[in-house]
Design a protein that fits this description.
The chain is mainly alpha-helical and 195 residues long. The protein has 8 helices and 2 strands; from the N terminus they run H-H-H-H-E-E-H-H-H-H. Strands 1-2 form a two-stranded antiparallel ribbon. The chain has one domain.
Length: 195
């Protein structure tokens, strides 16, 4: 099974909120299932975004899900959609790179950011999801702050991040799952599986 098929299977089995089907249909009209997760870091390849989303879901469930206090739908929704802001975000371009073996210049593709809706990262994901599906406060906080201290708005000394982490355990859990997936599970991987 490919990452797209796995994403859709988890999504349809776990997420049953009103208009969740419409959100999935919208995702299929975007480049969400073919886009990279980054320009040159983790999963910077065709299908990397869906690969990363599935990885975050598995990490979140394996490491942080407590059946006594956590909600499977919330975990699926947050993990699978935390980076929805990256749909329609990257553009494939080309540059000349010198082949060290032959000494000739070759055309190589790469991804660059082309953000037509610069609304931020986590907040943009919350905005896009809520065009279709109503989020619980804990879900919105988790998605908004999943970047933790890597978010530009935190670098200025905002206390909102620590307050969100204090009040909403899901926000901490999603942040940790995103970090582990990015820096440990996805090292040296690509989205080839099942295309």
């Amino acid at each position: 099974m490919g990452y797209k098929e796995e994403f859709i299977q988890i999504y349809t089995e776990k997420i049953h909120r009103e208009n969740s089907r419409a959100l999935l249909e919208w995702l299929e009209k975007t480049d969400f299932f073919t886009a990279p997760a980054s320009t040159k870091f983790h999963c910077a390849c065709l299908g990397g975004l869906v690969q990363h989303s599935v990885n975050v879901y598995h990490t979140l469930m394996e490491r942080h899900f407590d059946p006594a206090s956590d909600n499977e739908e919330s975990f699926a929704l947050c993990a699978l959609l935390h980076d929805i802001c990256k749909a329609q975000f990257y553009k494939e371009s080309f540059r000349n790179v010198k082949n060290e073996e032959t000494g000739t210049w070759e055309k190589k593709s790469f991804y660059q950011v082309e953000d037509s809706f610069p609304y931020g990262h986590g907040e943009k994901s919350v905005f896009l999801i809520e065009r279709f599906v109503r989020l619980k406060t804990s879900e919105a906080m988790a998605i908004r702050w999943h970047m933790g201290g890597f978010d530009d708005s935190v670098r200025g000394g905002s206390f909102a991040l620590s307050q969100a982490f204090e009040k909403y355990p899901l926000a901490v859990k999603l942040h940790l799952a995103d970090l582990e997936s990015t820096y440990l599970r996805e090292k040296g991987t690509s989205a080839v599986r099942g295309k």
